[in-house]
Write a structure and sequence with these properties.
Layout: E1 2-7, H1 11-20, E2 23-24, E3 30-34, H2 38-43, E4 49-51, H3 60-76, E5 79-86, H4 89-99, E6 104-107, H5 118-123, E7 129-133, E8 143-145, E9 153-157, E10 165-169, H6 178-187, E11 193-197, E12 210-211, H7 216-225, E13 228-232, H8 235-243, E14 249-251, H9 264-274, E15 279-281, H10 288-295, E16 297-301, E17 308-309
Parallel strand pairs: 1-3, 1-5, 2-17, 3-4, 5-6, 6-7, 7-8, 10-11, 10-13, 11-12, 13-14, 14-15
Antiparallel strand pairs: 9-16
Helix pairs in contact: 1-8, 3-4
């Protein structure tokens, strides 16, 4: 039998990859289902995977097309369970699995510190889908708590060092983040070696050698070699930095500036900052001293991180 691990690429896929290493109660034979992208090809290079047509946010037609793919898969192979961290792709797979009596597990993104996402709210309406939050305080009603992607990391003091190599990454969504780029250009001294991954941000006239996207493997290498990482407060960016041993400087996109649809990045950055797993700043408050402070910390994995134990009953 085969477990399906289903996620949108980006932070959702990065979380599921991290969680799967600690996941109990799921078949060892696993098929990953996501969309084709440089990140997914890199992360899943050594894992059995299937790429389906991309499903955008609030994409009803895409969800229906994904449901057709899910139906075909469940006809072709013996599926023991379906696990998803979202986003909309979960709506294609989990209700169908639950309807067929296949254990269906939805783990809400760690980006959602307060209320659940739209996907999570819709899945609350589907009987027999097992729901989990990544924060104990949010486990109530039908929502359980099985652990968090961040449970396995801890920050440690490191030897002070100069900041010479910087990675700046703002993700690859449809929204730009010009406020962060402008602020960094104002505070970074000349002569630094900077990798700029700018996504959809307009960089006309800035005079920087930027790339909209960077393949996941290349970005991971650059982060490992960097002195400091400055990122938007996307879960995938935070996870990538932590996994590479770096304490990230997280600057949240804000919905009121049209940089995201809501304020969930502010919540995530604040939570990680309070627990010492990030330096959290706004574009306006960010200074070069914050980069120096982050560079003076390293991040390691806990020796015995808690297991992710998925429920056996709804």
């Amino acid at each position: 039998m085969t477990a399906l691990l289903v996620a949108t690429n980006g932070g959702h896929l990065a979380q599921l990859v991290e969680l799967a290493e600690r996941m109990h109660g799921i078949e060892a034979d696993r098929l990953w289902v996501t969309f084709d992208s440089p990140q997914s090809r890199s992360l899943l290079a050594d894992r059995r995977h299937l790429f389906i047509r991309e499903i955008d946010e609030r994409d009803v037609r895409g969800v229906l097309a994904g449901m057709a793919s899910a139906r075909q898969l469940m006809r072709d192979i013996d599926v023991s369970a379906v696990v998803s961290t979202g986003s909309a792709i979960a709506l294609s797979f989990l209700p169908l699995a639950a309807m067929r009596g296949i254990p269906a597990h939805y783990i809400e993104s760690s980006a959602r510190v307060a209320g659940p996402s739209l996907t999570g709210r819709l899945l609350q309406l589907v009987p027999r889908v097992r729901l989990y939050r990544q924060y104990p305080h949010a486990a109530r009603g039908r929502w359980g708590y099985a652990g968090s992607v961040f449970d396995g990391f801890e920050a440690r003091p490191a030897a002070a060092r100069d900041v010479r190599r910087v990675v700046v990454t703002v993700g690859s969504g449809v929204h730009g983040f010009r406020r962060l780029i402008d602020r960094l250009l104002a505070i970074l001294p000349a002569g630094l070696d900077i990798l700029w991954q700018t996504g959809s941000t307009a960089i006309d006239g800035l005079g920087i050698a930027a790339r909209p996207t960077v393949p996941a493997a290349e970005l991971q290498r650059a982060i490992r070699d960097a002195d400091v990482v400055v990122a938007h407060a996307g879960c995938g960016s935070a996870l990538t930095a932590l996994a590479a041993g770096k304490l990230p400087v997280l600057v949240a996109r804000e919905g009121r500036h049209g940089e995201l649809v809501d304020e969930h990045q502010m919540q995530l950055a604040g939570w990680l900052g309070q627990r010492g797993l990030a330096v959290h700043r706004t574009p306006e408050s960010l200074g070069f001293s914050d980069l120096l402070a982050a560079a003076a910390q390293s991040v390691g994995r806990r020796a015995d991180p808690p297991a992710i134990q998925l429920a056996r009953t709804p």
